[in-house]
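Most newcomers find our protein records easier to grasp once they have seen one. Sequence and backbone structure share a record, each on its own labelled line. To make this concrete, we reproduce a full record directly below:
***
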Amino acid sequence: MLKNKLSKAFSHITESRDTIYGQGQTNINYSQYSMGGGEYIGYALVAILVVLITGYIFYRSLLLSLIFSPLAFMYPVIKKGEIIEKRRQELRLQFKDMLYYLSTALSVGKSIESGFNDALSALKGIYGDEKVYIVREVEVILTKIELNKPLEEILSDFANRSGIDDIKSFAKVYSICYRKGGNVIDIIGSTATVIREKIEIEQELQNIVSAKRLEKNILFVTPIALVLLLSVFEGGYLDILYTTVQGRIVMTCAILLMLLGYYISKKIMDIRV
């Protein structure tokens, strides 16, 4: 009887630790994202529909639209990359909040471990009980500290999983201070302030170009809408583009130039500090 109870208790502890260390929702590798089958099919179907409609508008041929439809299966791959980047950006902004509370705690003379405890309480106050990325990560850090794991190793693991340069810089600074000695608390506090200010500057720049992103999307859709309107109200005006080889080439070049313009504008607006 006692043996069974001990076995159940140990199983419960193991399950709890598994949840903390990656069997559950924590220890996320932010450079990877596993897209479910339903999610993949959903994005692919939407992309196929868009390609078919756009192809028919520019070629007025269902056969040509179907020929180009396999290109739609590139969209789930692109979307996966966007989800990974969005998740990193969310973590990065949340990391900025964590740095603020950590540096505040360090500035009043608290140890870095106590600073993480204070930061966790403050972050829960901001985000509530919602398990946002940074709350999970700080909980993991504190749990591993209780298990006597070196903080240098803990931060290094977090930095490697995040794939974010600012978190890597923070972990590297702590590692250097830990190995070489020095006033760890003052150096970490100063580093946290510098990184936090850098993230805030980049956030301000992103807010400035947010309106331009809307303009970029409008400009991308405008040629499609224009061709559609001319096809509906002035059908004969564009017949030469649909009935000749030269017309097909012109339409193909138009699509390629639209995609090239979208790609270039997206790169221009991807501002990094």
About this structure: Residues 58 and 252 are 8 Å apart (CA to CA). The chain has one domain: 37-268. The two ends are 62 Å apart (CA to CA). Residues 1-25 have pLDDT under 50 and may be disordered.
